[in-house]
Amino acid sequence: MQMTALGKTTRPSLPRAPGAPVYLDYQATTPCDPRVVEVMLPWFTEKFGNPHSRNHRYGWEAEEAVEKAREQVADIIGADAKEVIFTSGATESNNLALKGVAHFYREKKNHIVTVVTEHKCVLDTCRYLEQEGFSVTYLPVRSDGLIDLGELEAAITDKTVIVSVMAVNNEIGVIQPLAEIGAICRKKGAFFHTDCAQAVGKIPLDVNAMNIDLMSISGHKLYGPKGIGALYVRRRPRVRLVPLITGGGQERGMRSGTLATPLCVGFGEACAIAKAEMAAENERLLGLRNRLLGGLKQRLPEIYLNGDLESRIPGNLNISFAFVEGEGLMMGVKELAVSSGSACTSASLEPSYVLRALGVDVEMAHTSLRLGLGRFTTAEDIEFAIDHIADAVEHLRAMSPLWDMHLEGVDIKSIEWAEH
Amino acid sequence: MAYSDKVIDHYEHPRNVGALDKDDHAVGTGLVGAPACGDVMKLQIKVSAEGIIEDAKFKTFGCGSAIASSSLVTEWVKGKTLDEAASIKNTDIAHELALPPVKIHCSVLAEDAIKAAIADYKKKSG
Q1: Which domains does chain B have, with CATH numbers?
Q2: Residues of chain B in Cβ contact (below 8 Å) with chain A
Q3: Do A420 and B3 touch (CB under 8 A)?
Q4: What residues of chain B lie within 8 A of the CB of A349, using their CB?
Q5: Coil, strand, or helix at residue A208?
Q6: Which residues of B touch A407 (CB under 8 A)?
Q7: pLDDT tens column, B2-36
Q8: Closest CA to A121 of A140, A96, A95
């Protein structure tokens, strides 16, 4: 095994519990890297101090650990440690960025620009702000999942306080052109917030080169612990916000509450590992993903990739398996842990709003699977997944009346279906 | 969401998957649901001269509960008269398969498929 700058072996293996499915849902969450867990452990027990205690060694050592973690988080996005606020996760960070900035500048500006394919926590926060009287523009995406920069520029007015565009989409893995978006926002005088929950540790990020003013980060999407995230808040030019949580004034007054030292330490270590290994890991994942897509295409006709292939993180595929319903398919691939854009998998009866926003037909949106690869995915996992998915799709197509119609040359759109 | 053992059994070992000749006068075909809603069921029955359903086949595009519901009704309708088959209620299907509330529509669709197949047979046999 190769040594990294951290002086530790790369990519430890993570044994699966007997009978547990192969995990291919890395956009939902990632396991903690064992190296991360190792550095966290002392901070639960013998080093249990409150990092805000100024009077004794317990507090000092905890504070030092938290500040080191803050630097590690700042380092992976090219920021200064003073600009990093710890939160409970990306949902809180997105809430703090949008509500905090909107509320602070509400006397001068009342308009927000975001995108229809954002995560629900951004969209729902925007809906909340609309109810408070803010106006929100929801930009559409093209069929490749990316926004049109001309439309973005046209949407920003002198009343626009903040533009929020996610870096990497959680369902289809496409990467928005952050540097171009940042340049437009800076030119037009609007703050640029980006939800980077799926991006940090997956693609190179630099808050200065990309003119990012606020960035949301999640710990558990990059092999760190759940329950922690961060919000980057630019200091020059200064971004101000109204806190969501008030109290002891921790985190420069932007987020009160005692920091969770073990979680901060783990999150910091996860960032350090991700930064050191990103280039090599991306290359490895790209090889696995190309094999997965190629293998599935070789075995199965009528499968369609959702979202752009080029501007996409290496660890994501989102594929529609025409004529096979997604939840039925998930049941057929029970040896794999994956997720589907099918309506049946959610409480609502609508299929994935992200796929619909791309212009994917409702019928095809129902047949999609999201396959997420990550640090502990092996070549054997991929070979197994290809066979398992292809077998299940063939089995279900043999059972599908729509597949029969397709083989008979009947266009299913020509039939008058009784929608129920 | 966990599926009941009966749903899993029908999903993994579906009964009576296949097709009957839709042009046969003794065959009634019901096609219900819509691809846009995520489920489509095709149920076919073959009716004897005595008015007994002697064979049934299905094909379903849908989730595990939809597949199980249609598989189950092919078993239930065989050997029944048309009136007996028409009296099968979605609640019976939902109860047998222990479907959760969000999956009740699968059993409704299966009941509709039986009724549609019977109606098609009656129309053809005139």
Answers
A1: 5-121 (3.90.1010.10)
A2: 3, 8, 11, 14, 17, 19, 31-42, 59-64, 66-67, 102, 105, 108-109
A3: no
A4: 37
A5: coil
A6: none
A7: 789 999 999 999 999 999 999 999 999 999 999 98
A8: A95
